[in-house]
Specification:
This protein is 69% helix and 3% strand. With 595 residues, the chain is mainly alpha-helical. The N and C termini lie far apart (126 Å).
Length: 595
């Protein structure tokens, strides 16, 4: 540290004692020289010259630091020499850049000139085309005036020919009359006539001819109206024979009506439970109830189910070898489990198929070890209970007999109807008058007929004999019992939906005009749908077509494409596929034109 201080001291002393070079004053005065009068490069060089000389004086005067200062100078000199070489190498590139710039400018000017020339040609062509259009328009106007003139002449000629025809008919009639009069006169003058008055005979002959004409017209009318009518006696004989044959056929094919009261002694729960199960059901429904009772009894006795194996025909959620435990849940437990599955399915968008979702749901609920046992248990239960809405609908969706969109849309429809009734209930009392109830039904279902609206009102508890002053607790119409059974009102909504779908497909088949075993093309089926339901939008039609022909919507040929005719399917197969999805009428069908 002391050494460094001594060096610094000696350097400072030397710098203070060393006299200033005489050339420095002259060079500093040069630094203030007017720069605008010098060439830029020369000026830059000359501006650095004084500093160079001063630096050299320092090198010479400070002997101690001469090596260091010389190294610094050489380093800067080398760097400056390198920069000069670099600048000298870039000079040709600068000249080339200027040349390229000029060349590009010339090309741009040439292209602009060429474009200007093309624009002028296009303008001339446009003017020629406009003149040609004007000429064609003039020819069109001339032809239209000529057509109008020809139509007028044709109408005049037609009227002329009509007049000529009428005049000819009148002339023929006059000639015939004159001929008849001449014949009458000749008869009157004949000596064989018993001296009758000629005028009287002429009048009698004229009246007779008129009667003959009228009688002939009546005869023709009778033949036209009653040519195909059989005598009444023959009709009564045929009717009697037909009735006799029908009675024989009924006796041959009919079976005696079963006595359903016999079931009360064999059904679990006795007569009271059977009366509750059979209330309001027809024979077909009672058969289902009896089969469910028998099947549920057998199901409770089973402790294990045999696995169905791993065949391709076996649903994925039932593929298993060996025995599977029967969990033996109650009917209520099965219904609640299926409701939970639907809630999870509708809670978020599911990309997996419904059977895969069902098995994953069971794995999350009961664990992988018990999922297969619950899958078999639930499947066997929903396969038996056809009368239960929740089970039957879940079974239809699970087995692919019905699209899950059908279930979702039906639930949305019921929710929307309840919302509309709630909006109509301004006092929020849960009550509606018959008029309000009728208005809500008609506004929510504008395509339903008066008969269908009346059916819904009767299912809701109102009949034609009901008073308008009565009030309806509409919220009770949407309740469910512990086994998921809806009220008659919601059940009637579902029945009408299925009937409307069947009628829609029946109209489609009738419009196509082909048999079920015949093939139908894609454009023909599309045309049939648009005819019976003109309000269908393109997206909905494509969805129906995709389902009927089992084609992804992205691969559907565009309307008018040549590939359309190549896409064919058996009509019965197409209708069965459409029966699976949510297909319904969007708007009213256009009325048939009056004949």
């Amino acid at each position: 540290m002391a050494c460094q201080q001594s060096r610094y001291h000696s350097f400072s002393s030397a710098s203070r004692l060393q006299p200033r070079p005489s050339g420095v004053t002259i060079d500093e005065s040069f630094l203030t020289e007017d720069k605008s009068t010098q060439n830029r490069k020369l000026l830059q060089k000359r501006r650095t010259l004084p500093y160079r000389e001063i630096f050299e004086f320092f090198i010479e005067d400070f002997k101690t630091y001469k090596p260091l200062l010389s190294s610094i100078k050489n380093a800067y000199e080398g760097m400056l020499a390198h920069q000069r070489e670099k600048i000298r190498a870039l000079e040709p590139l600068k000249a080339k850049l200027v040349t390229v710039n000029e060349d590009c400018n010339e090309r741009i000017l040439a292209m602009r000139a060429e474009e200007k020339y093309e624009i002028s040609l296009l303008k001339k062509e446009k003017m020629n085309l406009l003149k040609l259009i004007d000429k064609k328009n003039e020819e069109k106007i001339s032809l239209q005036s000529e057509v109008t003139k020809l139509r007028k002449n044709l109408a005049e000629e037609y009227l002329h020919y009509l007049s000529e025809r009428d005049a000819r008919k009148i002339l023929i009639a006059d000639l015939n009359e004159l001929r008849y009069q001449r014949e009458d006169m000749s008869l009157a003058q004949s000596p064989g006539i018993w001296g009758e008055d000629p005028v009287k005979l002429t009048l009698a002959l004229t009246m007779t001819r008129q009667d003959l004409t009228r009688t002939q017209m009546e005869l023709n009318t009778m033949k036209a109206n009653f040519g195909d009518v059989v005598p009444r006696r023959d009709f009564e004989m045929q009717e009697k024979t037909n009735k006799h044959l029908q009675e024989q056929e009924i006796q041959r094919t009919s079976t005696p009506r079963p006595d359903w009261t016999k079931c009360k002694d064999v059904v679990a729960g006795g007569p009271d439970r059977w009366q509750m199960l059979a209330e309001g059901k027809n024979s077909d429904q009672l058969v289902d109830v009896l089969l469910e009772e028998i099947g549920s009894g057998l199901l409770r006795e089973k402790d294990f189910f045999p696995g169905l194996g791993y065949g391709e025909a076996i649903p994925a959620f039932l593929r298993f070898d060996g025995l599977v435990e029967n969990k033996k849940p109650s009917k209520k437990d099965v219904v609640n489990l299926l409701k939970d599955a639907w809630k999870e399915r509708l809670a978020e968008e599911q990309k997996e198929t419904f059977p895969d979702f069902f098995f994953n749901f069971l794995e999350h609920r009961f664990g992988p070890s018990d999922a297969m046992a619950w899958a078999y248990t639930i499947f066997e239960n929903i396969k038996i209970f056809h009368s239960n809405e929740v089970m039957s609908q879940f079974y239809a969706v699970l087995m692919g007999k019905r699209s899950e969109n059908v279930y979702v849309t039906q639930k949305e429809t019921v929710a929307q109807l309840l919302k509309e009734m709630t909006n109509a209930d301004s006092q929020n009392e849960g009550l509606l008058t018959m008029e309000q109830f009728n208005t809500v039904l008609k506004s929510t279902f504008p395509l339903k007929t008066e008969e269908q609206i009346q059916e819904l009102m009767e299912a809701g508890g109102w009949h034609l004999s009901s008073s308008n002053a009565d009030l309806l607790n509409y919220r009770s119409l949407f309740m469910e019992d512990e086994e998921g059974q809806s009220e008659p009102f919601v059940q009637k909504l579902w029945e009408q939906y299925m009937d409307e779908k069947d009628e829609y497909l029946r109209q489609l088949k009738q419009e196509l005009g082909i048999e079920l075993h015949e093939e139908v093309t894609l454009p023909k089926l599309r045309g049939g749908l648009m005819t019976i339901d003109p309000s269908l939008d393109k997206q909905t039609v494509n969805t129906y077509m995709s389902q009927a022909f089992q084609l992804p919507e992205s691969e559907m040929p565009e309307e008018g494409d040549e590939k359309e005719e190549a896409v064919v399917e058996i009509l019965q197969t197409a209708l069965e596929r459409l029966q699976v999805i949510d297909i319904r009428r969007v708007g009213p069908r256009e009325p048939e034109p009056a004949s």
